[in-house]
Design a protein that fits this description.
By secondary structure, the chain is mainly α. It has helices spanning about 5-25, 30-50, 50-60, 60-105. It starts with a helix and ends in a 19-residue tail after the last helix.
Length: about 120
């Protein structure tokens, strides 16, 4: 078993790595992967927060405190980016819904048929 300082440094390193991967996954549109990574980082954060020895190491080490702040900043930025992306997608859905409503209102004027004629291909062999 590692001493509390080594264990705390390893936990913080793992958290940094997972949070960075999560941020990259979000920006790449890999939302499922980002969710999986968030699920992997959550128990590490809980372990760090619940461990009195780790808390003691964190209080005594300014470098570790800075690394934790950087992780918090990265997660906050990811959350803000995700909120903005959800707003953008929501606006796009609203525009699509409005366009569908307009099409539904004018379709009867044009006979309600499909906009593009469909054709059938027959295989003769």
């Amino acid at each position: 078993m590692h001493d509390p300082r080594q264990r705390t440094f390893r936990l913080v390193g793992a958290i940094e790595d997972l949070v960075a991967q999560e941020a990259l996954a979000l920006r790449a549109g890999e939302f499922s992967l980002a969710g999986e990574l968030a699920g992997r980082v959550a128990p590490l954060i809980a372990d760090l927060a619940a461990n009195p020895a780790a808390q003691s190491v964190l209080r005594a080490d300014r470098d570790l405190q800075g690394r934790i702040r950087a992780v918090q900043t990265m997660r906050r930025a990811s959350g803000e980016w995700l909120e903005a992306e959800m707003e953008r997608v929501g606006a796009g859905l609203h525009e699509t819904s409005a366009a569908q409503g307009r099409v539904a209102r004018i379709a009867p004027v044009y006979g309600g048929g499909p906009a593009v004629p469909t054709s059938r291909l027959n295989y003769v062999g």
